[in-house]
Amino acid sequence: MHIRNSAKAVIVKDDKLLAIKIQEKGHTYYILPGGGQEHGENLHQALVRECQEELGVAVDIGELIFVREYIGKNHELAAYHAHAHQTEFMFLCDVHQETFDNGTQLDKGQTGTEWLPLDDLLQYQLFPRALRTHLIAYFNNGKATTYVGDIN
After folding, report:
1. Whole-angstrom Cα distance, residue 10 to residue 69?
2. Beta-bridge partners for 125
3. Can you give the three-state secondary structure of the chain, one letter per residue?
4. Which of 36, 34, 21, 9 is nearest to 109 (CA)?
5. Phi/psi at 45 (5° precision)
6. Which of 20, 55, 115, 125 has the most Cβ atoms closer than 10 angstroms to its Cβ?
């Protein structure tokens, strides 16, 4: 077993968070843009590639604001994810457009993107769910705990 690294983009404009909208098995949920680091890539290269694939845009990468682990055996989908161990590095990013065409390689179930109001973030099924309060704290207070641990 190995640990997979992932780079994620936290993109906020006008007090709204950009999220990828996923529809699977009759459910709608949201995730941050980004994905797995490939062998030979650094985290910034992985994030640029993933945002191009999922959003069809280039991103300007800023500071690292959160590090999250996901150890599948510790969460509600342990029966499916017991083997999974992923570390996600979440970077504050900027894009120079408000709407997006689909990228070149969409995530499974990806139907588009949506700007989620930060004030209403707790009302959305944004995964990882526990990250929502950290995002709100960061954007309300300008800082939050960087290492958020093994959350889902």
Report:
1. 16
2. none
3. CCCEEEEEEEEEECCEEEEEEEEECCEEEEECCEEECCCCCCHHHHHHHHHHHHHCCCCEEEEEEEEEEEEHHHCCCHHHHCCCEEEEEEEEEECCCCCCCCCCCCCCCEEEEEEEEHHHHHHCCEECCCHHHHHHHHHHHCCCCCEEEECC
4. 21
5. -60, -40
6. 55
pLDDT of 48 over the 90 cut: yes
- Count how many residues are written for the chain: 152
Structural domains of the chain ordered from first start: 4-150 (3.90.79.10)
pLDDT in tens, 84-116: 899 999 999 999 877 666 666 667 678 889 999
Q: Which residues pair with 127 in a beta bridge?
A: 31
Both tokens of 104, joined, read 């070149």
The answer to whether residue 19 scores a pLDDT higher than 90 is: yes
Give the separation between CA 99 and CA 4, rounded to whole angstroms.
30
pLDDT the model gives residue 102: 67
